[in-house]
Amino acid sequence: MTSLLEGAKKLVTRSSDIGARVDGLERAATAARGRVDDSVVDDAEKVAARAAGRLKLSADHTVVALAGATGSGKSSTFNALSGLELAAVGVRRPTTSWATACVWGKEGAEELLEWLGIPARHQVTRDSMLSAADEDVELRGVVLLDLPDHDSTEVSHHLEVERLVQLADMLVWVLDPQKYADAAIHDRFLKPLSGHRDVMLVVLNHIDTVPEDRRASMLDDVRRLLEADGLSGVPVLGVSARHGWGVDELRGMIAERVAAKKVTRSRLEADVKSAAQRLQEATGTAKAPSLSKERVAALDDAFAEAAGVPTVVKAVADSTRLRANRATGWPVTAWFSRLKPDPLKRLHLDLGASGKALTGAARTSVPKATGVERARVDTEVRALADHVGEGMAPAWASAVRAASVSRLPDLGDRLDRAVASTDLGAARIPVWAGLVRVLQYVLIVSAVLGAGWLALLAFGSYARLPEPPTPEVGAFPLPTLMLLGGVGLGILLALVCRWLVSLTARSRARSADKRLREAISEVSAEVVVAPILAEIASYAEVRDGLTTALR
């Protein structure tokens, strides 16, 4: 129980950093899904899952795999390292696709062996055998695997080797003097594992069959080939499992690395780093971009043009002039303006609740975007996407472009609804115009009364009736002053108000333009900007995850 607790403590300490790297790789793979090649993402996710699974298992055991080609002497090396003749105890090299495992210190290794997929019938517990105590202590914690031949004609053997090579903490490649340069092992295994030099040993077995004067040069040649594979610095040891030459040295090298308790961590770090580098090549190394305010503003302008905002703004100005001039104009002639159609109503805008219920609020009569306006929208969308994708890998830049146009098919309806739902502020006449209207009617009533009064005086003079006294204001009779003043002041007031109406129309047009562009900007943000921002966020998540995985 004490050893299990100590092992758990070591696992927590060891996994604090590598666990963060695994998490970073997993986050990067999840964020990259659908943006880069699925095979690269699948590989990263598998590595992350495999590393996470290994971290949950025994930290006191190290999986050491012996791999090589047919005739390389893996089994004899396996027997020499274990100090056992497996056939002597009823265990022999399996003729199936399963590997054989020899375990030093079985306690706590059960789950690890199950994770490795080694059947119980192919497991040998070294502690249960008659062996020297120092041998047990030296390799305690080792799970030694004898893998099938990687060049076997059996497909199941190939699959088993590839599976366990990915799971082993440490790899010992057993080469034969006759086939150590075989491209099969170099191209299929050694080159792809160029980042795993710290968890790898190479053994040139059957060294006894090589003339003594050629042994050193042959070992140098093996090192040269490894260097070409990107594995310079990997220890190369000449052994003869049959005669026991170099076995103790090999055993000591394995024991030394296992005792350092760094092999498992180094293997997982190498796996994570390798997968992260492949994912980074697919996603690019540029920093997460930011949206250009100038490009977004240009996009909003293009959308506003396509939505007919200039047409609607002009209609607001014209409608304001029409309604305000009707209210403030001279009542005798102002009624003629009722014969003119209201520009906003012609566009099915600002009709009021009952009007929208009658004509339908979903559509306006704003002219559809012209080919030139649609082309400008496409150009600005493409320019924004290209600006964001600059510096990204081609696959991710393509994902940004695809996201930028993913919602464009609904653009026409969205823009129309935005225009239709915007309060244009032209429904009510200005307060001052209402006051002018009252004043105009007071003046017209005054003129009518003055005209009536003068008519009565004229009729009395014609009928030779006694002329009543007529009040005067200065040198002008009151009835004449009422008639001329009511007409003159009314016309003058109407002319002055036209200037005020023009100012009001321009002010309301600017206000309507601002509200419309804000509504259009919301559409732009939802239809184009939001999908691009989502891609930027995913890219930033990938960069952050890869930075963590590769630190």
Automatic annotation (TrEMBL):
Keywords: Membrane, Transmembrane, Transmembrane helix. The chain crosses the membrane at residues 438-460, 480-501. SUPFAM superfamilies: P-loop containing nucleoside triphosphate hydrolases. Residues 64-205 form the G domain. This is 50S ribosome-binding GTPase. It comes from Nocardioides furvisabuli.
